[in-house]
Amino acid sequence: MSLNASLSIAVQSLLADSGALQATNNNIANANTVGYTRETVVLQESDPSMQGDLSVGQGVVLQGFQSVRSEVLQRQIEVQTQQQSAADAQVSSLSEIEPVFTTSTQDIGTQMSALFTSISSLSTDPTSSSLRQGVISAGQNLVTAFHSASSALTAQQTGLNTQVTQDVSQINQLAQQIAALNPQLAAMKQSGQDGGTLQDKQDQLVLSLSKLTSVSITQTDTGETISTGNGTPLVVGANSYALQTSMGTNGMQDVKDSAGTDITSTLSGGDLGGTIQTRDQAIAGLQSQLDTLASQFGAAFNAAQAQGYTQSGSAGGDFFTLPSGVAGAANSIALASTDPASIAASSDGSAGSDGNLSNLSAVQSTALPSGQTPTDTYAGLVYQVGSLTANATAESTATAASLLQLNDQLSSLSGVSIDEESTNLIRYQQAYEAAARVVSTISSMFDVAMSMGTNAAS
Q1: pTM score, whole prediction
Q2: Is residue 301 within 8 Å of residue 281, measured between CB atoms?
Q3: How open is the CA angle 133-135-140, to the nearest 5 degrees?
Q4: What are the boundaries of each domain within the chain?
């Protein structure tokens, strides 16, 4: 083998080891960078040359750099992220609602019991103004409790409405950024290059998108094609398709695709899916049940009032004022009168009679049209809120554990190990130094040969 051929092999070795050192240094530098995927150097043995009957090696060629990735693990992490974000959105909202229905001195159940306690006290002296006022005050406290619970649910829905708009805006921004990277990555892959930093960036953007909504991802020649879980396109090649929001007839923000089709009910996963589910199902269901309780309880109490007579001897009128329909009853219920004399305690019209108080008290233990007593109906509401919160919390905890395991697996594969990279650094450095010594040796041999040629000529 000629000195020129040996020098060429040594120089190629220097270039290869220099590239390996560069990749190693880059890995060490990004050991704590979120989303970074470690790189390995791709080295390939050069094709040998034939010298007579001998096959002589021609050294090594630096082919490039390759990121160590697992698309399977990446997709699994994105799916689990969608589920956890949805559960977290539900936990966050329901946790704010739960205190409203937790037993306290101000909740509906406590105030309902206080109303019937005041009626029982009135039976000891139906003519007592203070005891009658106690019933009126207890009734007003119950009305206030209904209003507070309804307002809390409405306020939470309003906040979730705003969150829907914010989530859609973030989804559109992320889709634009992902679409902008697609042509660059496609061009690199077509030329045989590894995506490297750009692929890391796109993976992080897709992960951020997964925190907002459920997505489906397909790899194509033009890059990643991304759609929502229901098939609505978000990214196709270099193009992104923006979602829209608009106020629906129910006062809630609807989500529409780029063509204007309402897709609200089909969205799931991520913060957007969890927010919509909580707003349109959990809270809407609780509000409906609360309105039904207020409407049916108020109607039952009014019916009991109608069976008796007021302190002046006139027929009992409504104790509560209710809207014509069930919707909004919890927010609209009010006392029909604040006059203590309007309480229909008498069963025969006489001022001292307390015969109708038993009818009023019986409302507490009589099943409403919904099938349960007022107390049991409210207890069911409290249980439902707790159950919804507990289920969402359990889902969040389970997916968090799954995510931790998946991220650990991905980290062991794609993450940077300082110990391993330090070992590589020493190995490649020694190889570089060895190649440099070969170059130095061949250079000296050239010098000797040149000197011999000069001496011979002289």
Answers
A1: 0.86
A2: no
A3: 95
A4: 3-68+415-457, 75-405
